[in-house]
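Recap from last week: sequence in, structure out.
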Amino acid sequence: MPRHGSNAACHTTWRRQQSTTWAEHWRPELAEHHINVNIINPGWIETEIPKSYYDSAKLAGLAKRIPWKRIGTMTDVGKVITFSCSDDADYITGATIPIDGGWVQPLKDQ
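Predicted structure tokens:
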């Protein structure tokens, strides 16, 4: 995962902000057609990307700093996507759903 302050982190922040703006724009227009517009915003997820930046010891240390005490999994993300596409989420639109175990601060190198 990109380190705080890197160009990649800047682009990630920009993309997330653009997604939020996009959802806010389309939500009212698409709601009249019963089309949900939501953003799924994953935090630290166990994929090849963080493994390419950090060794397993660094990732284990990071997991201890996440309030849920672990890094998320693709299953965690998949469950949210499945719910968001189900009839159970029918009345949810314009929401940003974090999948981050409570992590809200940017990562700072120690």
